[in-house]
Amino acid sequence: MPDAGYRAGFVSFVGRPNVGKSTLTYALVGQKVAITSSKPQTTRKAIRGIVHEDTGQLIIVDTPGIHRPRTLLGERLNDLVQTTLSDVDVIGLCVPANEKIGPGDKFINEQLDHYPRAKKVAIVTKIDAAPRPTTAEQLAEVQKLREWDLIIPVSATSSIQLDILVRELIALMPTSEPLYPADAVTDEILEDRISEYIREASLEGVHDELPHSIAVTIDDMIEREDKDILEIFANIFVERDSQKAIIIGKGGSRLRDVGQQARIPIEKLVGKQVFLSIRVKVAKDWQRDPKLLGRLGF
Questions:
Q1: What is the pLDDT of residues 5-19, one digit of tens each?
Q2: Of the candidates 37, 44, 99, 51, which has an alpha carbon nearest to the alpha carbon of residue 69?
Q3: Is the Cβ–Cβ distance between 161 and 49 less than 8 Å?
Q4: Which residues pair with 290 in a beta bridge?
Q5: Are residues 44 and 24 in contact, defined by beta-carbon separation less than 8 angstroms?
Q6: pLDDT for 46-62, tens place per residue?
Q7: Contacts of 251 by beta carbon, 8 Å cutoff, 6+ apart
């Protein structure tokens, strides 16, 4: 039974692409609940990762990035971000220590004014990649952006100050009973996690436009009775035939690589050997088509 000072609530990390939001979530939760990639708009759903401490529970909501939308998919992702940020208790703006604050950071910081309910925290990430004077300079620049409830420098990859970040974030949460069971690490369903691992593998090494055009669905998952094997039948959807050719690669070589890369985290997740069958299909301009967006889970 939690004591009277127990706190629990929701935090969402925002920031430009590749500032370390999903990596930070991964490090705090202790296992991978959100895929990571240097490509913009990698995260497409509000994924919850749960951190358990004696003093409280931190539910991290990893959302799509705040951006200027160019497609119907972009508009729907922005709507999802707005709904999520309106409900969380704390918003953490992530700014890397080793990159100067630019227009993108300032734009996202301005958007935070639309969410007066949430407390605002600045998290200076990647401090292991910057000399101390540079980090100190960045902390001073971040301080100029607004009145923050907390400013904290961290490194997710080197686990620097993560314990302090968790402690301080929990302290900003409302007093509450635990919101999730003690063994929960995410509320995302298994099929969604598997499809995200396949999408992550397919994002590696593709050019800038293609990542937005990739969506993954799971047709079926079958437990083989004779062997301890899970059969997974998945589809990678793209928008054009030329993109299909890129994903498949010469003689199917790239698609084989995608399958091999995706199987590693999937097998770790399900705790058994996996047979993974992936088909690549074209859904023309699905990012702009309301019916296709619905079919693909958006």
A1: 899 999 999 888 778
A2: 44
A3: no
A4: none
A5: no
A6: 567 888 999 999 988 87
A7: none
